[in-house]
Amino acid sequence: MGVAFDSIGFKASLCDGCGDCMTACSKAKGGASRISIVPGAKAGTFETAICRQCGDPKCVQVCPSGALDKDNGNGIIGWDASKCVDCLLCTAGCAYGGIAVDETVARVAKCDQCDGDPACVKVCPTGALEFRKAGTIFNEYGGKEDLFVPGLSGCQGCNSELIMRHAMRKIGRNSVLATPPGCIPGMGSVGYNGKTGTKVPVFHPLLTNTASMLSGIRRYYDRIGRKDIVVMALAGDGGTSDCGFHAVSGAAERGEKVLYVCVDNEGYMNTGMQRSGTTPYGSWTSTTPVGEHMKGKTQDAKNLPLIMTAHKCRYVATASTGYMEDLYEKLDRAIEASFEGFSYLHIYSPCPTGWRIPASKVIEACRMSVDSNFNPLWEYTNTRGLRFTHSPDNAYPITEYVKMIGKYRHLSPDQLAHIQAKVDEQVALLKLMAAESPPPQAAHRAPAGSSTPAGAESSQPARREIARN
Amino acid sequence: MPEAKYLLVGSSHAALEALRAIRLVDPDGSMAMLTKDERLPYSPTILPYVVSGRSGPDKVLLRDPAFFAANACTYVPNAQAVSLDAKARAVTLANGEVWRYQSLLVASGAQPAIPPVKGLDGVTYHVLRTLADAEGLRAAMGAAKSAVVLGAGLVGLHAAENLAEAGLKVSVVEMQDHVLPGYFDAKASTRIEEAFTKHGVDLKLRRKVVEVSGPAARVTLDDGNVLEADLLLVATGVRPVTDWLEGSGVAVDKGVVVDEAMRTNIDGVWAAGDVAQATDFASGKPALIGIIPTAVEQGKIAGQGMAGDSYRKDYAGGLPVNTYRFFGRVALSIGRAAATEGVEAVETDSGAYRRLVLEGNRLVGYASVDEPFDVGIMGELIRRRIDLTECKDAFLAWPVETGRRLMSEQWR
Ligand SMILES: Cc1cc2nc3c(=O)[nH]c(=O)nc-3n(C[C@H](O)[C@H](O)[C@H](O)COP(=O)(O)OP(=O)(O)OC[C@H]3O[C@@H](n4cnc5c(N)ncnc54)[C@H](O)[C@@H]3O)c2cc1C
């Protein structure tokens, strides 16, 4: 297995050009900043120049002194000051201004990601800079056994399959799994022709009794002294919020030591895309059609994870494959909590087939659903209450999200306004509930363009004095 | 008879990039790298720094034996190719050994071009192309008090600076009007010339050497002046190392003639780097552009072709690039930075010097003295022929920031 690397991500739409990253970098490195923020094409927008730690680094290839080298362990292109003869050929190799002259010392300088804890990211007040740890996740889990067989028959681009495979890789073999009717067993995890599709014991309970059945399994394992087994469900939203709800609610109320993962694709997707209790307002489904009179679902979705917090579960959280680091951390805590009491994880899962999204855009839709507050990310424990794990501030308007998805194509301005109002209302409520918790990192300021920052009409570089050249 | 699926002749930038490109697609195919040199790979570009003592023979090596082991490549030093039998697919070495191959890369680079000056072959003179040359020059420099350098190109100027900094009295003789011709326009060159003069280097521009005589060096110029020195360095340009290809059928013009895939006219034979005559980006015409960036690019393309990599792209033509340090200062140039005809040149000549050369609102060249810029970014703007009409004012006023912006946008 190869190795993957963490990287510094830049989201231009969130950058307000404050330059804090550059100040922090030059302080940390004792010289010119290794990241530079420059004015964008439109007033008030910004772009960046920073080393991208290329996989095929031209700076290294043209270096005549062997001073530059890509470290295949951490992906960083390192610069050896003692070997460098200051010829500057590397600056001719780089197409991004990622290695440039630090005029304070007349030598080149480049980003080394501060040993995995970049100073620039830490001070970014808008969340425009992010240190993406997907590489670490891959290195840690990529080599672990995939607990589903290859060739599950999910649709192309299926996000639920991604969730299943990631979750079980993380949870491991020491588990017993229930997958009630839905896409998850439907694509073959429970098997075909008497052969299982899952490498741990897997049950296919009724839509209605999953949590009850798991309660029994848990109690049995407890009795025989196997308290180390994760007893869990990978269930759809229908089997959780509608037909199976009484069982889920009962198990939660009794405090059964179960990990219940709800994979929410907002409807009964495997049986022909019927609406469920979590189908959002305005969605097209086969039972909420769009025609002359009907314009999709006329009721709002119920907020199932919020309902679960009212059961005083040990752990409740929402998650998305758009934010894998967050998902993995929550899986950790959810597994832990499931040995103590009921643990509930709600993972949003855009469905390319049922929602009409190109397979290649599913992860983008996941990210946008979070970034627009359509699906805010938070977690709850029965002792510490609710806390956002991703800032709900600086959200994109809801239109940015719905325009990516075919099932909303017909929405009228009124319907859009309704959705935006409901999203705002829900975030406001969550904020009230989270009022006592520490805020998540970053994103406390208005993003560029949302209001006009002072001097936005000038096209002059904001900070020529700390731009490196 | 030793043989290799991939035989690379030369151990410098072009050959090393070919090795890398080949191994990306073919991890196992047998490979050997033959080189005339006795050392592990190093770059000729580092040599001025060996002469000055800034670097050293032990610090300059670009790869170690472990690299060649890991890449399953046999490294053969002291292996000078003397002839090629293209039909038999065999290369003969000076020691008589014959290597057979399936695919051959000619990456034997360039060597100093020695001008036909009367008396030159009768005296001891230095050149600077190999580590041995650099060590020889460094040793000779210690004992010498004065030096004459023939040629004010990159090599000559680097060496002249080394010699002057070591305390020698240095004269540089150059036929052209200015130093570093081609890379810089007269204004930029003048700044560089002034620095040399300030450091005591006597620049004899527009002068030719008519005769050289011993014992050390008595150099007679075309104006009748005579320069006396303990040390003579010839740096009047380079010429591709193609002697060993004579009679092989491989077409050689000024260098080995290659197509856009770095193939020679002979099946199974590629060429890359200083030895190859590829095309110039601006004119599309055949050109020798003997610099590392072109050697690296060509080596990669050749390697991809040799290994049958389907992602190979045609060579788009070489772009002259020069990142030049002199007495701690910086002079940079890329593309047609000295062009005057049919182009729009925007110069800034107070404080630092900057010269932007545009054609139809597209950047075609950029040079500066004392003001660093992102050479690679400007190279991309030139290569991609980015239309700057929309942001021309900003670009002319703040080329660095605007360039960074444009590439940042391209990246997403
Ligand atoms: C002093 C100096 C300063 C320079 N400064 C710069 C600079 O600032 N920027 C820049 O871009 N470029 C610079 N260059 C040019 C740059 O070094 C060359 O363009 C580059 O090294 C070309 O690489 P190459 O692989 O084509 O060939 P070379 O580097 O010339 O290597 C040729 C290789 O072939 C081997 N060889 C030769 N003949 C034979 C044979 N018959 N059999 C077997 N092996 C053989 C040699 O041993 C060597 O390993 C400079 C060069 C010099 C000398």
Automatic annotation (TrEMBL), chain A:
<feature type="domain" description="4Fe-4S ferredoxin-type">
    <location>
        <begin position="75"/>
        <end position="104"/>
    </location>
</feature>
<feature type="region of interest" description="Disordered">
    <location>
        <begin position="438"/>
        <end position="469"/>
    </location>
</feature>
<dbReference type="GO" id="GO:0044281">
    <property type="term" value="P:small molecule metabolic process"/>
</dbReference>
<feature type="domain" description="4Fe-4S ferredoxin-type">
    <location>
        <begin position="42"/>
        <end position="73"/>
    </location>
</feature>
<dbReference type="InterPro" id="IPR051479">
    <property type="entry name" value="PorB-like"/>
</dbReference>
<feature type="compositionally biased region" description="Polar residues">
    <location>
        <begin position="449"/>
        <end position="461"/>
    </location>
</feature>
<dbReference type="Pfam" id="PF02775">
    <property type="entry name" value="TPP_enzyme_C"/>
</dbReference>
<dbReference type="GO" id="GO:0016491">
    <property type="term" value="F:oxidoreductase activity"/>
</dbReference>
<dbReference type="GO" id="GO:0030976">
    <property type="term" value="F:thiamine pyrophosphate binding"/>
</dbReference>
<dbReference type="InterPro" id="IPR054808">
    <property type="entry name" value="PadI"/>
</dbReference>
<dbReference type="InterPro" id="IPR017896">
    <property type="entry name" value="4Fe4S_Fe-S-bd"/>
</dbReference>
<dbReference type="InterPro" id="IPR011766">
    <property type="entry name" value="TPP_enzyme_TPP-bd"/>
</dbReference>
<protein>
    <submittedName>
        <fullName>NADH dependent phenylglyoxylate</fullName>
    </submittedName>
</protein>
<dbReference type="InterPro" id="IPR029061">
    <property type="entry name" value="THDP-binding"/>
</dbReference>
<dbReference type="Pfam" id="PF13247">
    <property type="entry name" value="Fer4_11"/>
</dbReference>
<feature type="domain" description="4Fe-4S ferredoxin-type">
    <location>
        <begin position="110"/>
        <end position="134"/>
    </location>
</feature>
<keyword id="KW-0560">Oxidoreductase</keyword>
